[in-house]
TrEMBL record, chain A:
<dbReference type="Pfam" id="PF01547">
    <property type="entry name" value="SBP_bac_1"/>
</dbReference>
<comment type="similarity">
    <text>Belongs to the bacterial solute-binding protein 1 family.</text>
</comment>
<protein>
    <recommendedName>
        <fullName>Probable sugar-binding periplasmic protein</fullName>
    </recommendedName>
</protein>
<dbReference type="InterPro" id="IPR006061">
    <property type="entry name" value="SBP_1_CS"/>
</dbReference>
<dbReference type="GO" id="GO:0055085">
    <property type="term" value="P:transmembrane transport"/>
</dbReference>
<dbReference type="GO" id="GO:0042597">
    <property type="term" value="C:periplasmic space"/>
</dbReference>
<dbReference type="InterPro" id="IPR050490">
    <property type="entry name" value="Bact_solute-bd_prot1"/>
</dbReference>
<keyword id="KW-0813">Transport</keyword>
<dbReference type="InterPro" id="IPR006059">
    <property type="entry name" value="SBP"/>
</dbReference>
Automatic annotation (TrEMBL), chain B:
<dbReference type="Pfam" id="PF00528">
    <property type="entry name" value="BPD_transp_1"/>
</dbReference>
<protein>
    <submittedName>
        <fullName>Sugar ABC transporter permease</fullName>
    </submittedName>
</protein>
<dbReference type="GO" id="GO:0005886">
    <property type="term" value="C:plasma membrane"/>
</dbReference>
<keyword id="KW-0812">Transmembrane</keyword>
<keyword id="KW-0813">Transport</keyword>
<feature type="transmembrane region" description="Helical">
    <location>
        <begin position="280"/>
        <end position="300"/>
    </location>
</feature>
<feature type="transmembrane region" description="Helical">
    <location>
        <begin position="141"/>
        <end position="160"/>
    </location>
</feature>
<feature type="transmembrane region" description="Helical">
    <location>
        <begin position="115"/>
        <end position="135"/>
    </location>
</feature>
<feature type="transmembrane region" description="Helical">
    <location>
        <begin position="17"/>
        <end position="37"/>
    </location>
</feature>
Length: 417, 311
């Protein structure tokens, strides 16, 4: 008897839910940002639903390392959500070319973004854009202000001053001068090579020259960052060869290291962990008075599943994502992820503000290996991880590393001038 | 007699055999045999402009002919052999020695030792990889502190971060985890040796260590053979520990790259490298071939020559 009642109740509830669903549309969002789950649920989704009560959102993230594989199988099986968080460049381009992502070039909100901002999610010729740019991350160095004050040091502006600061910390012995390890390899490339490199290859100018074949990875401006990295090894902690990314984060946030080569995505995490004051400086320039360049990398966008049943509702949401309202909300919910839209956004977090301020002083570029150049085998991005780690350890000379990468790239890439 | 009555009829289909075999056959076919053959088939295809086309052995030609691929393949294969050699040279002798000690009836607390040594085997690779990474960490690990306590701090190095030592270190971690398996198998084999044989040996003056070498060891040789082949198959299918400890790029400088990690990177892609199921299947097929050859060599070259004793 009780069973039958429960059954009836269940049946009734599904009927009710079905009736409710007929009036409003529920959109599911695929994402790898499981760290942001609470921010989406507490801030972003309520803000959107307040403005558009007829559309409900369901944010369903998966683990970052598995996201691409999970998403691809879901798309193939037809069970993927209506909205899809886009990795920049080739991973999403492949989805667009397979017809999995819809073309969003005509979306009204797209006019809020510059071509560089859209480059991560446009076809090579820039004719079609398939994801709305959400945020970028900026590279630089986060430092322990208390430690700098203790030793009477100032933010270095040139490479020479940078090494003078590191020497001062090394001599003092109280702090590990710089917190980075080579065990996971990607920090060496992302927070090392791609962080300091744009100052040498002059940002977009050098990147475009590499794409068009005018420059080669054996040229001085592409080898010079490796020469600087080779000097870093002396200032990293004992046993940095086996130091992992979380190790480095902990060394810095526990106050044992003075400088942390960073990406701005660390800001919100570090804010909750440190009990000292943090500052940030952009990658030092080679010579005093040089123009500065920063890596302002397009990192996260959002697109529409081409097979969605609710394209209109999805486009309404994407238009909202492209709006300044969303940009302000997102930038302040996640300090360190910077909106890409042209309208300036008020950021409250001081450290994130510092990072964002470099956009005015310096020229922005994206990571050199991301667009087009990592399409073949050997994969330039993976090789750069390897080479950067090897150079820091002193296992490979900067010149050899450059020659090896160029040889690998030249084996499959034909520059299109 | 009822028995003769049955046999005089025409041969009946023995349904019970089919019924009892069916579940295993169906499940095994669906989850093992079909995927295996499908992988082999997939290795003969490639994707050209969005279409899957048959390319014959082209993927294998790339794998062995293109320097970018073949260098990685041979590196992974050689690393894999080294990984296997360490297991054979360290894990199995230690396993046998432990079993011999445990089977000594005068040893106290033997069931405690047995469980303690076997427990790591049931732990997840991820836990083992993470725990050992922490133990060996130059920053937080207890290994530097322990070496310091006995005045041997100078011997410590960031083993997992150095090309020369990373693979051997990981192999030894794997040995630590799995030494319980040879121990258990040998232990069972040793227990099955009848006491009369050992007592007869004692009457002839064969005792202690020489009893082990002359009586027990020849009797457990078939078990050692089985353990060797199990180790071989497990090592050439290994992936988890390396992935958990060093990531899919198997650093430093691919010195810990084994066939499993190479396959994973290729099949599923990694970071900006997009997954290539066709090349991945070619690598999987090559792994299958390596394991098949190894198992055949063992079955026909060694298994048939091991002398078995009727106990």
């Amino acid at each position: 008897m009780t069973k039958r009642i429960i059954l009836g109740a269940l049946l009734g509830s599904t009927l009710l839910a079905g009736a409710a669903a007929a009036q409003e549309v529920t959109l599911t969002i695929e994402s790898w940002r499981n760290d942001d789950l609470s921010i989406w649920q507490d801030q972003i989704i309520p803000a959107f639903e307040a403005a558009h009560p007829e559309i409900k959102l369901n944010f369903t993230p998966s683990a970052p390392a598995e996201y691409n594989a999970v998403l691809n199988s879901k798309l193939d099986a037809g069970s993927a959500g209506d909205l899809i968080t886009c990795r920049p460049f080739d991973a999403s381009l492949a989805l667009f070319e397979d017809g999995k992502l819809a073309d969003l070039s005509d979306l009204d909100g797209m006019s809020n973004f510059s071509d560089v901002a859209k480059s991560g999610w446009s076809t090579d010729d820039g004719s079609a854009t398939y994801c709305v740019p959400m945020a970028s991350v900026i590279h630089g160095f986060i430092y322990n202000k208390d430690a700098f004050e203790e030793l009477g040091l100032e933010e270095p502006e040139t490479v020479e001053e940078f090494f003078a600061v590191l020497d001062a910390f090394k001599e003092d012995g109280g702090y590990i001068p710089m917190a980075m390890g080579t065990n996971d390899q990607w920090e060496a490339a992302t927070m090392g090579y791609q962080n300091i490199g744009p100052n040498y290859w002059k940002g977009e100018e050098g990147r475009q020259a590499l794409l068009s074949g005018e420059a080669s990875l054996t040229d001085p401006e592409w080898v010079a960052p490796y020469e600087q990295l080779a000097r870093w090894g002396d200032y990293l902690g004992d046993g940095f060869e086996a130091q992992t990314y979380p190790d480095s984060q902990n060394l810095f946030t526990l106050g044992r290291a003075a400088i942390y080569p960073a990406g701005s995505w660390e800001v919100s995490g570090f804010n909750n962990l440190v009990d000292f004051e943090m500052g940030a400086f952009p990658p030092p320039v080679p010579n005093e008075g040089d123009e500065c360049y920063i890596s302002d990398h397009t990192d996260i966008g959002i697109g529409m599943n081409a097979a969605t049943e609710h394209p209109e509702a999805a486009k309404t949401f994407l238009d909202w994502v492209a709006s300044p309202e969303f940009a302000t909300l997102y930038a302040n919910a996640l300090p360190g992820f910077f909106p890409l839209s042209d309208t300036p956004v008020e950021i409250e977090d001081p450290l994130a503000q510092e990072f964002a301020s470099w956009r005015q002083e310096c020229n922005s570029t994206i990571r050199s290996t991301y667009q087009i150049l990592s399409r073949g085998t050997p994969n330039l991005e993976n090789e750069t991880w390897n080479a950067s780690a090897q150079v820091i350890k002193g296992a490979e000379t900067p010149a050899d590393a450059g020659a090896r990468l160029q040889e690998g790239l030249a084996s499959w890439y034909e520059p299109k001038p | 007699m009822p028995g003769t009555a049955v046999s005089s009829h025409a041969p009946k289909i023995r349904w019970h055999i089919i019924v009892f075999l069916a579940p295993a056959v169906l499940v095994y076919t669906a989850v093992m045999i079909l995927p295996l053959f499908d992988t082999l088939r997939l290795a003969l295809y490639d994707e050209v402009e969005g279409e899957r086309v048959f390319v014959g052995l082209e993927n294998f030609r790339t794998l062995f002919g293109d320097a970018n691929w073949s260098r990685q393949f041979w590196n992974a294969l050689i690393n894999n052999f080294w990984f296997f050699l360490i297991h054979m040279a360290v894990q199995n002798p230690i396993g046998i020695a432990l079993a011999a000690i445990l089977s000594n009836p005068r040893l106290r607390f033997s069931s405690f030792y047995r469980s303690a040594i076997f427990i790591p085997t049931i732990l997840s690779f991820v836990i083992v990889g993470f725990a050992w990474k922490l133990i060996l960490s130059p920053i937080w690990g207890i290994a530097p502190g322990m070496l310091d306590a006995i005045g041997l701090k100078s011997l410590f190095a960031p083993w997992l971060g150095r090309e020369e030592t990373a693979l051997t270190t990981l192999a030894l971690i794997s040995v630590w985890q799995f030494v319980g398996i040879p121990m258990m198998l040998i232990y069972a084999a040793l227990l099955s040796i009848p006491d009369e044989i050992l007592e007869a040996g004692e009457c002839d003056g064969v005792t202690g260590l020489s009893a082990f070498w002359k009586i027990k060891l020849p009797l457990i040789l078939p078990s050692i053979g089985i353990i060797s082949i199990l180790t071989f198959v497990a090592n050439f299918n290994a992936f988890d520990l390396i992935y958990a400890a060093q990531g899919a790029l198997a650093g430093p400088d691919f010195s810990t790259d084994i066939l499993g990690t190479f396959l994973y990177r290729t099949f599923f892609g990694f970071q900006l490298q997009l997954g290539d199921p066709h090349m991945g299947s070619a690598i999987a097929s090559a792994m299958f071939a390596v394991i098949l050859i190894g198992v055949c060599l063992y079955l026909f070259g060694i298994q048939t020559r091991i002398r078995r004793y009727q106990l």
